[in-house]
């Protein structure tokens, strides 16, 4: 699970998402969904003005939690103290000039500002307002005050504002806000390191239309790339046929495309000498057609007879040739059968591949591939268990990165 930055209990981080009454408040719904998708517990605290932009029902439906705006709501539970004290991170997006001024002055006239005033966790704000309001000396002084107190202030983007106006003051895109927020939750223990991670599944062409492939979507590899980047690592993500909508947008992640097993092998070998850690998450086709046709094979007549040749074992090759000097981690998607259990096959593969760690990923109709939870067991090269966990892919990515760090330190 993700290690919480505030407090000493492992589990999903508790994030308060404050929403103020800017026109960009609608983007906060996307921010909430992305934070929840990353495995965190999100509580939305809007101002009354924000509810004029986005309805209470939307926020409640997104998080499954009641929405309150004043300190008089749930007064018996002293909610503003409880929510602020329990939070691991407070993100205010959008943050209007009015709310920024209140935060700087210590005014607590609504639930959001009162929550921020009692919080001891990191606070990040994403300002959004008209250019003149952002540039006004009062706003700049308030922002400077908050920064001096340790509040992370994102610079507003430049672009289209309300009406026909354009300029500085636009709310950063939700993905940028989330990346910055998650960066505050993690220790930057991987700073200065480079991870090379493959994701997705290779496709071996039969003709211009058909290919031999697999069900891997690349979600786990993407989650690993983000987990490493959030902790400060520079990441080369070799994406094999990963849907563009799934690819991460993070300043520390460089994406390299690969289609076939031979292309993936070339990318990994080329990047390996620069890496401290190599993670082979991509599902590689065992075989490829010996030849391909330039035109589509037509239906009808005799069934085409395809000769298959074996693809190179990329993981085994990376583990055998250690001239690159990197720590090598493999993935194995496994199912049990009458011949053995998932772990039986996983342990045999761990010993055969020779990687420093092998992540055995249990797959099936409701686990493993796609946007579903997963269960993993991490084995060392001798087949001994190092970690065993289940949860979302984002949570499991954290487990993998933690296990890698421990193993590299000899723990």
UniProtKB/TrEMBL annotation:
Q: Where is this region: Phosphopantothenoylcysteine decarboxylase?
A: 1-194
Alphabetically, the GO molecular function entries are:
FMN binding; metal ion binding; phosphopantothenate--cysteine ligase activity; phosphopantothenoylcysteine decarboxylase activity
In this chain the Flavoprotein domain maps to 14-183
Residue limits of the DNA/pantothenate metabolism flavoprotein C-terminal domain?
190-405
Q: Which GO terms describe its biological process?
A: coenzyme A biosynthetic process; pantothenate catabolic process
| Pathway(s) per entry | Cofactor biosynthesis; coenzyme A biosynthesis; CoA from (R)-pantothenate: step 3/5; Cofactor biosynthesis; coenzyme A biosynthesis; CoA from (R)-pantothenate: step 2/5
| Key words, A-Z | Decarboxylase, Flavoprotein, FMN, Ligase, Lyase, Magnesium, Metal-binding, Multifunctional enzyme
Q: What Gene Ontology cellular component terms go with this record?
A: phosphopantothenoylcysteine decarboxylase complex
As recorded in UniProt, its EC number(s) are: 4.1.1.36, 6.3.2.5
Chain sites annotated for binding CTP: 286, 296, 312-315, 331, 349, 353
Q: Where is this region: Phosphopantothenate--cysteine ligase?
A: 195-411
Give the cofactors, semicolon-separated.
FMN; Mg(2+)
Q: Can you quote the record's cofactor note? A: Binds 1 FMN per subunit.
Q: Where are the transmembrane segments?
A: none
Q: Which reaction does it catalyse?
A: N-[(R)-4-phosphopantothenoyl]-L-cysteine + H(+) = (R)-4'-phosphopantetheine + CO2; (R)-4'-phosphopantothenate + L-cysteine + CTP = N-[(R)-4-phosphopantothenoyl]-L-cysteine + CMP + diphosphate + H(+)
Record-stated family: In the C-terminal section; belongs to the PPC synthetase family.
Q: Which NCBIfam families match?
A: coaBC_dfp
> What does this protein's UniProt record list under function?
Catalyzes two sequential steps in the biosynthesis of coenzyme A. In the first step cysteine is conjugated to 4'-phosphopantothenate to form 4-phosphopantothenoylcysteine. In the second step the latter compound is decarboxylated to form 4'-phosphopantotheine. Catalyzes two steps in the biosynthesis of coenzyme A. In the first step cysteine is conjugated to 4'-phosphopantothenate to form 4-phosphopantothenoylcysteine, in the latter compound is decarboxylated to form 4'-phosphopantotheine.
- Its protein name is Coenzyme A biosynthesis bifunctional protein CoaBC
Species per Swiss-Prot/TrEMBL record: Flaviflexus salsibiostraticola
